[in-house]
Amino acid sequence: MPTTILIVDDHPVFRKGLRLLLEEEQDLRVVGEAADGREAIDLVCELSPDLVVMDITMPGLNGIDATRQILSESPDTKVVPYLGLIFVNTRFRANAGQARLRTSER
User: Are the beta carbons of 63 and 54 closer than 8 angstroms?
Assistant: First the structure.
């Protein structure tokens, strides 16, 4: 049975790209997408995903507070938080080549 995943990010292009990447793996299945922490909490209750990929910096209910509530209500759900800026800074420090920042412009 594939691992079910909920993607949470306020940028629709990033959600779509991550979905396409994850769906290339046969043992992974994206069951939903949320644009903010509140929607993520509602979808976790509705869909019961095995894993939530959670953006930390979102308007409204941020990823940290949403993760706390998700783990309180659904302790078996795993949450993988990420923060794009940390990834970019790490790449620059490691001299790993060019990196592009996601912007909030749509």
Answer: yes
Taking the alpha carbons of 91, 68, 51, 59 in that order, is the dihedral positive or negative? Answer: negative
Stronger pLDDT, 64 or 86, i.e. the higher one: 64
Q: How many CA atoms lie within 13 A of 47 on its CB side?
A: 22
pLDDT at 83: 80
Q: Check the CA dihedral 13-36-42-21 and report its sign.
A: positive
What's the CA gap between 97 and 92, in Å, rounded? 7
Give all domains of the chain, ordered by start, each with its CATH number: 3-93 (3.40.50.2300)
